[in-house]
Amino acid sequence: MTSGHDALPPDGTAPGAHRVAIIGGGITGLAAAHRLISLNDRVQVALFEGSQRPGGIIQTQHRDGFLIELGPDSFITNKPGGVRLCEEIGFSDQLIPTDNRFRRSLVLRKGRPRPVPDGFMLMAPARAWPILTTPVLSVRGKLRLLGEAFIPGRTLDDESLADFVRRRFGKQALDRLVQPLVGGIYTSDPEKLSLRATLPRFPDMERDYGSVIRGTLATQKSKTSNASATSGSGARYGLFTTPADGLSSLIAALVQTLTASGRVDFRTSVSVDGLVELTDAAAQDTSGTEQSAAWRVQCSDGSAESFHDVIITVPTHRAASLLKSTSLQPLAESLQQIEYASSAVAVTAHRLKDFSHPLDAFGLVIPHIENRRVLAVSFASRKFPNRAPEGHVLLRTFVGGAMQPELLQQDDSQILAMVQEELKNLLGMKSPPLFSQLVRYQNAMPQYHVGHLSRVAQIEQLLQQHPGLHLAGSAYHGVGIPDSITSGRAAAEHAVERAGGTAVTESA
């Protein structure tokens, strides 16, 4: 059954416009909208967002002189998506680097925070001396890790992070260093995490150099001029950036740019209930444009509109629930194969003097073998300047993830009390926080399990059977902000190609 909304173009849309619906108003959807209107002046965009504001999990708050990130707090610059988008909207001058005074990370060993060996990047040691002198590993563990340079290389299609690290570096390196460092990024079980889908540079080093250590040293020689980016320990903190006024300021600038274009209609507080793929006959009956509508977007309030293209940017379990027709079931079933983990972030504000530990790092990661009840603690106001008043510190403590989902069964007050107990034990917190806040992310983190790339390839193959439907987001080719932006832009380029425009495909 059709309605007046099915006819294209609708009231208020220029004749001959190519209508694109974007489902999900997070950074992926906003980036897709920006790319669409940048590439083709015939495109009109309707962006559907179920909540009251765009931005998704990106949310910055200001309270009592503290700048609080409830979601991600930064993005990496060696992947071009984030930096490129900031340049295009004139936002680059708002970006700031990490504070080099505290550019290192800590790892818990036998209940005590210890520095991650200087130059150790997730699993690759760039220097031998910090490994030989670290108290995190035993003598046997140190020799086993450095002995990776002499272990013959192998080429496998895909294997888990845990299998790769045990095979190349040994069990101690996995349990005491790699698992907590990588777990802080992906909140995943290393026994299931696909190395090829998450950290492909390491198996590539094994393939090309026969060793990760030899590959790291060779790469280091070719990038000696970029010493600041490789200083420190843990993640490559020198490569991270964020807006001075928080990531929500980037969202606000992007929304302002899209609104000023006059070609993006924000539909906030509108929940999409389903998608219907229109047959050629039905589309021709309801379309007066040169190109017929391909999809009808049905909203939970009973309204429906037709579009030439639809870009879905929500999590795959939510995307699958929208694909209700029989022809879309194979695609929906493939999307449901991607699992998600839940987590919670406890934000706490403190006086610096209320800790016995100096908090002279960017954060503390917790190995699973330590049997603690938190995954990591980010020292947010040490990582970036002006996040806390003078003499104060802002912490973000992570709970749950794929390896401790049972902890999230507690109510908010119980989790906050648990976090305070852990901060006392781990960092010597002597007084309660000045304030605390808990935010939950239910089924929000896609799990790139072994075989993930094959699953995504199957999804993309099935997608080709449904012209005008596009998928984007963190579930496919990367979980960070730059990856999500690049994914949204790629989907937009495909839609523009269907509109008859010429899209310049970008490299990731």
What value does the Rg take, in angstroms? Answer: 24 Å
Shape: globular
Q: Could you name the ranges where pLDDT drops below 50 across 5 or more consecutive residues?
A: 1-12, 225-232, 281-290
Q: How do the strands of the widest beta sheet line up side by side? A: 8-7-18-19-20-17-21
The oligomerization state is single chain
Backbone structural class = alpha+beta
Biggest sheet features:
7 strands, mixed
Strand content: 15-25%
* Total number of helices: 18
**DSSP helix fraction:** 25-40%
End-to-end C-alpha gap: 42 Å
Total strands: the figure is 22
Query: What's the average pLDDT?
Result: 91
What's the gist of this structure?
It contains 18 helices and 22 strands. It has 508 residues and is of the alpha+beta class. A seven-stranded mixed beta sheet has the order 8-7-18-19-20-17-21. A five-stranded parallel beta sheet has the order 12-2-1-16-22. It has a three-stranded antiparallel beta sheet with strand order 5-11-6.
